[in-house]
Each structure stands twice: as C-alpha cells, then as structure tokens.
Write a structure and sequence with these properties.
Blueprint lengths: L16 H21 L2 H15 L5 H21 L4 H17 L11 H16 L3 H14 L8 H14 L3 H15 L4 H18 L2 H12 L6 H19 L3 H6 L9 H13 L12 H6 L9 H13 L6 H14 L6 H17 L3 H18 L12 H4 L24 H6 L1
Helix pairs in contact: 1-3, 2-3, 3-4, 3-5, 4-5, 5-6, 6-7, 7-8, 7-9, 8-9, 9-10, 9-11, 13-15, 13-17, 15-16, 15-17, 17-18
C-alpha cells in the first residue's frame, strides 16, 4: 500500500508493453513462490484476497497487477476449478472493465493481445464446463482481437484449436492443426512439440489409421530426449492401439497396478472405463470398486472429478443391492455428463459401458439409442470410415436387437451375464 493513493485524482500513465511484461514477470514470480508454500486452495484464497486489495486502488501499476492476478486466478480455475459461477463472472467483468478503463482497444492497440488472453481464458473455462462450441468460439475470438502481437505463439494457438477439434470428434481437422503446430515448434518449444506429436498419434489411432500410427510411433520413440510424461503417454497410446487389435486388457491392467508406471488417477479411471466397455467381463474384478481404489491410496482424483463421478455412477449400476430404478438413475447421470468429459476416448468408453449395462438389463430400446450415439461419434471421428473407433463394439453392433422387429422383446429389470469370449472360457 505504500506510495499508492486510493482512487487517486492523478492522471494514470499510459499502458505500454514494456511495463506489462515487467509486471507479468513480477506477478508470475510472486505466484510461483505462493504456490510453493501453500496448497492449491490456500493459494486460490490468497489470490482472491489480493484481487480485493488491489481493486481499492486506481493507479496504473495497481491496475496492471490486478489484471494479471485475475488472469492467474482464472487460469487456475480453467485447469482445476474452485470458483463459483458468480465469482468467474465477476472476475471476467472486472478484467474487461480494467482494459476499457485503461483505453486499451481490441484489434488495433499494441496491447490488444490482453483481450486475446481474456478470451483464451474464457475458452479454457468453457471447455472445463463441457461447452465445446463456446470454447472454440472464444478461442477464435482470442485470435481475432489480439491484433498484430499475440501473447502466446501462433503455434500454441494451433495446439489449442486442435484440442477443441479433437474434443468435438473432428479428428481430421485436429490432425491437420497438430501437424501445423508441430512444424513451427520443432526448434522453439520441445514440450509443445511433444503435445503436437501425441495429438497426431491419438487422431490416427481413433481414425483407425493403424499403419500410419505405427510408423509415426516408431519415429517418435526414436527421438531423444523424450520427457518421462511423454514416454508414459506413448506407452498408453500403444496399449490403446493393441486393445483395438486384440480386445485384450491384460497389458493395461499390468500398467495400472500399484507401483507401476501408470498407477495415476487419469490412467486408473480410464482403465476402469475400459473394463466396463469391453465385451468380456473377465477384467471386472480388477476394478470391482473404483471408489475403494482411491480411498485406500493417496491418489488425488480432484483434477479428474468429472471422470471420477461418472466412474462411481457406473460402479453403482453394477451393484445388485441397489434397486433397478435407482440404478437407471445413475445411468441417466452418466448420459447427461458424458459430453463434459475432456477426453474423447472416455466419451466413447462411457457410451459403450452404458450400452453394455442396458443390454444385460434387457433395456433394448435404450441400448439401441446409446449404441447409435457411439457409432455416430465413431463415424464423425473416422470421417465415415468406421462405426467402431475403439475396436471393441462389433459384438454389440451385430446384436439382433438392432433390428426393429426385435424391439418387442424389451423388458428391462433383470441383469444377465455378458456373453463370454473363448478367452473367458479358458480363463474360467
């Protein structure tokens, strides 16, 4: 507070790029120190208090610090949540007001990229909320209003756009944007280059372009050095690819055992979805209770809260102690929330898991509708080439209840065991 006057009548200095860059470095450093000393929740509360304090002043330096602190808080929320809808709305309005009050205009101002930052943060928040089109729109707004200078590199914008396309199942477009981003990031940003390469691999696998996938995977694994996180993701992609070909989860179950490389919340949750989506029930015992898995470990599911909630709902559906109508209610929760999942793989897995449960419960009308959603998404992902992007739904697609003349056999209520594969019989 020293040297600052509340609501000063002294004319504010004009904002310039040099000052903003200097204050950004200072604020980034202060927040990094804060995060090292405090938990995520404590850090968020401290920053909210700092925003309230800075909002009492009207000088240029305070307004600039206030704006960049708001950006940080919104960025935290876009990645991990923690703010109410009202808090998000007020922070966005406050940031917009600061830019307007400081006579910074979109498009033409040298500081117009700050508007781009604001729209980028909106895009990130909308994506977290499952509003993919709104997120994509805000991402394009960020490009439009930023003027000649972008706060982030164009390649980074391409990566973000590719991720939005992937989320909507537009894999051909996503692959194109990932490739463009990779070309411009080879020298400048190794971590972003890895993101672009991983994105291309996912697109190729989901489209069913396995020869191209294998070729690009071999080229990627030959690169050195690779970050440990990328190596983990590459092995997971290979595991997904092998499931597509062999319909076998043994390798995935091995990777996600305690003490193994993929014993992490995101991989465990996806592995649970795979056990419920695949035709055989031989792997159900690996995850008889996903809630128990997280309860008896120190794994943190807060960053994967949506996936965890859906996994719990699917788990409750298999609990025969729960009345059938209540289990149908859990299925409804999953259907309503599927599009909020950030991973297109998890969306596909959830549709299949629901379809299999409905099939076992003889709810054929609902099963037919749910399978239609899965196949429609698969057709979009593959540009019309495949109705089964994960490669594990052929038994469902061939089911007799897909024919309208079989619909009169619908009579939900009692679950039946899933048909066993030859491998199941041998295992038994």
């Amino acid at each position: 507070m020293h040297g600052r006057t509340k609501r000063s009548a002294i004319p504010r200095l004009k904002w310039n790029t040099k000052d903003i860059d200097a204050i950004r470095i200072l604020v980034d450093s202060e927040i990094a120190t804060l995060r090292a000393r405090q938990s995520e929740n404590q850090c968020r509360e401290s920053l909210k208090q700092e925003i309230y304090r800075l909002a009492q002043f009207d000088d240029t330096s305070s307004l600039q610090r206030l704006l960049l602190t708001i950006f940080h808080v919104l960025d935290f929320h876009g990645k991990s949540g923690g703010l109410s809808e009202g808090e998000v709305s007020r922070l966005l309005e406050l940031a917009q007001g600061i830019l307007q009050k400081s006579k910074i205009t979109p498009f033409k101002s040298k500081l117009a990229y700050l508007y781009g930052d604001l729209h980028r943060l909106k895009s990130q928040i909308y994506l977290r909320e499952g509003k993919v089109w709104a997120s994509t729109w805000q991402q394009q707004m960020a490009l439009q209003v930023s003027g000649a200078k972008l706060s982030q590199a164009t390649a980074s914008q391409l990566l973000t756009l590719a991720a939005r396309c992937m989320r909507m199942g537009q894999c051909a477009l996503a692959c194109e944007y990932y490739a463009q981003a990779e070309q411009s990031l080879v020298q400048s940003d190794p971590s972003a280059f890895e993101m672009a390469r991983l994105g291309q691999l996912r697109c190729l696998r989901l489209k069913g372009a396995l020869p191209e996938f294998d070729d690009l995977m071999d080229k990627t694994l030959s690169l050195v050095p690779l970050s440990p996180s990328l190596v983990n993701e590459l092995h997971w992609e290979k595991c997904r690819r092998d499931i597509f070909v062999h319909q076998d989860l043994n390798k995935m179950m091995e990777l996600t055992r305690k003490g193994k490389s993929h014993y992490q919340a995101p991989f465990l949750l996806e592995a649970f979805f795979w056990t419920r989506a695949i035709g055989s029930n031989r792997w159900h015992q690996e995850f008889s209770s996903i809630t128990a898995v997280f309860r008896r470990t120190q794994l943190d599911a807060r960053k994967d809260a949506k996936s965890f909630r859906l996994a719990m709902s699917l788990e409750h559906c298999s609990d025969t102690e729960i009345p059938f109508l209540l289990r149908l209610g859990h299925i409804e929760k999953v259907i309503v929330d599927i599009e909020g999942l950030e991973s297109i793989d998890q969306q596909l897995l959830c549709w299949l898991a629901i379809c299999r449960w409905l099939n076992r419960s003889k709810s054929f009308h609902l099963a037919r509708l749910v399978l239609a959603e899965y196949t429609a998404l698969s057709l979009r992902i593959s540009d019309g080439r495949s109705r089964d992007s994960l490669g594990i739904a052929d038994d469902l697609i061939q089911k007799s209840w897909l024919r309208s003349d079989e619909m009169d056999k619908d009579g939900g209520g009692d679950e039946e065991e899933e048909e066993q594969t030859p491998g199941d019989a041998e295992a038994g």
